[in-house]
Structure formats: structure tokens, C-alpha cells
Amino acid sequence: MPTGLSQLSQVAAHANLDDEDFVTRVLDNAKRSKEFYYKTLDELSLRYIKSNTNFIIFDTGSDSDYYVLELLKKGILVRGGKEFGMPTWLRVTIGSYEENQLVLELVKRCT
Q: How would residue 1 be classed by pLDDT, with cut points 50, 70 and 90?
């Protein structure tokens, strides 16, 4: 499962929480990135659920498995909504600006 965490990754995550500058940068990126997603999704008239987390979920309007496979080809791992009973929805963890752009470029091409 893509959500599994190794012990090493947990130790690294804990150490990063002590780095206030890092935490601030991550939180700022998440806020800006979600605003970027929401603006683009609004322009595409796609529904989404606003989030206080490091991910968003939105309705692609078609089978989300297609998006999962296309993004995986580009090295980006996202989750389709079937396991949540939402087969047309896509769950995307906030990434770097470049990763966020790739996700939204694919969504634009496919809608």
C-alpha cells in the first residue's frame, strides 16, 4: 500500500518536526498549492472537497483509474476514489509546485 511507512521514514518525519523553518515551508507550500488546485478546479468546473490536510480530493467526472495510471507513468502516485465509494474522485497529496502542475495539466487535458 502506498500509505505504509517504514520505521526510518517515521524517525525522519519526527526529526523534521523539530525544524521550525522546514515545518513553516511545508505548511506554506500546502496552503499555496491548495489555493492553486482550487482555482484551477473552479476554472474547470470540477467539484472538490476543501481540506485542512496535506491532500485534496476532487471529482474528475470519469473513472479515476485512468488518471491514476497516467500520473503513475509520470512518476506521480495518487489514489483513486473507488476504495472510498467515489469512483470518479481522485485523492492527491500536495507535492512540489512542478508535481502539482503535472497533475493539473493531465486533468485539463482529460476533461
A: very low
Domain residues of the chain, as ranges? 7-110
Does the structural domain 7-110 have CATH classification 2.30.30.100?
A: no
Burial of 67 (0-12, 13-18, 19+ CB in 10 A): buried
Residue pLDDT, tens place only, 82-95: 999 999 999 999 99
